[in-house]
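Posting for a labmate who doesn't have an account.
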Amino acid sequence: MRTKNTLMALFLASGCGLSFAAAAAHTDVSIGINIGPPPAPAVVAPPPAPQPGYVWGPGYWSWDGYRYVWIDGRWMAPRPGYVWVAPYWQHRGPRWHFVEGHWAAHHHPGRRW
């Protein structure tokens, strides 16, 4: 009888230990996203132009849905009559909006378009 009681006590103790271990192993994961202004871009000197007249498109920070990622700068063939407007972050109300880089018509003073 004593052996039976000892075995029962060990069985109950081991069951309690397992349930305690299972309870201790339970974790909660919480993920939050707070997007403020983008980080300051790194200062990067452009490499030599591949050909005379090429336009340097500087690197910039982009948001990939989870974090900011750095996009390297690149050389681009020029477009006559246009200027390159580098991508940038613009504050609009309480949020920041990313404006893609694009070619814009170059307006010369005194010239009608």
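Reply:
Got it, the structure tokens are right above this. Residues 55-105 form one domain.
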